[in-house]
Amino acid sequence: MYLDLTDEGNKINIYSQLVGGITPRPIAWVSTVDSDGAANIAPYSFFTVASVNPPVLSVTQVNPSDNKNKDTLNNLLATKECVINVVSHELVEQMNQSCGNYPSQVSEFAAVGIEATASQVVKPLSVAAAKVRYECRLREVITISKQPAGGQMMLLDVVGVFIDDNVLIDGYIDPDVLNTVGKMGGNEFATTQQLFSLIRPEL
Ligand SMILES: Cc1cc2nc3c(=O)[nH]c(=O)nc-3n(C[C@H](O)[C@H](O)[C@H](O)COP(=O)(O)O)c2cc1C
After folding, report:
1. Most CB contacts within 10 A, which of 26, 35, 50, 105?
2. 44 Cα to the center of ligand 1, angstroms
3. pLDDT at 57
4. Is 85 domain-assigned?
5. What pairing do the DSSP bridges indicate for beta strands 39-44 and 28-33?
6. What is d(CA 48, CA 60) in angstroms, rounded to the nearest whole number?
7. What is the 1 CA–ligand 1 centroid distance (Å)?
8. Is the dihedral of CA 67, 69, 70, 71 positive or negative?
9. Which pLDDT score, from 0 to 100, does residue 9 have?
């Protein structure tokens, strides 16, 4: 099968064709604050490293059907800061609960019972149990589309990184200790429990 996307009819299931094939996706558990200081946290799997020098991460909001921005984007536009908490396997239940459509003034930290800790240089709280946390400031928002399901990509300058000492072996993050999870299509998730190595060719 080949989906020619110049044929409008083939776009009907494009969401599932995108999230089912682009897998596994890392999960950014993004904590922010609004302009009154109210805390927010939500998971985003349209997430990756966008640049190393300077260090920049990207997180994309898929616009809701009512076309109102999600709290994360609103808060970033208002207060410019966030923490990207890395999701280890033991955090999946809390991470998943935090994606509920809570009213803006309700903190998912309190509603879900996520233990928080102060961040080093940004106002948003960090997840105490997250072993790696990237403290970020908003660089820019690239609006790909304001339509429902359109993307608004938040580019985030990394200003500091917390790494639990237990995760570091010889200065490198040990994947077995970090034990991250990934997002697949539908309701499926992947673990990182079966790793293998490949040596790059020297040409
Ligand atoms: C694992 C997971 C990954 C998600 N990834 C995204 C994403 O990349 N983009 C997005 O707009 N919503 C994503 N969502 C849905 C948001 O988390 C959800 O809309 C949430 O209510 C947004 O919260 P906020 O309004 O506090 O930002 C994801 C949900 C889950 C459980």
Report:
1. 26
2. 5
3. 99
4. yes
5. antiparallel
6. 9
7. 30
8. negative
9. 87
Structure tokens at 2: 């080949």
Question: How far, in Å, is the centroid of ligand 1 from the Cα of 36?
Answer: 22
Look up tokens 């946390």; give the residue: 133
Query: Alpha-carbon distance 94 to 183, whole Å?
Result: 15
For 117, other C-beta atoms within 10 Å of its C-beta total 12
Q: Phi then psi for 76, rounded to 5 degrees?
A: -65, -40
Q: How many residues are given for the chain? A: 203
Q: Which residue has the tokens 């105490």?
A: 128
Residues in the chain with pLDDT values less than 50: none
Q: Is 112's C-beta closer than 6 angstroms to any atom of ligand 1?
A: no
pLDDT given at position 54: 98
Q: Which domain holds residue 114?
A: 25-183
Strands (E), 118-180: 126-127, 132-143, 151-163, 168-169, 172-173
CATH of the domain at 137: 2.30.110.10
Q: Where are the alpha helices (DSSP H) in 10-130?
A: 14-21, 71-79, 92-97, 108-112
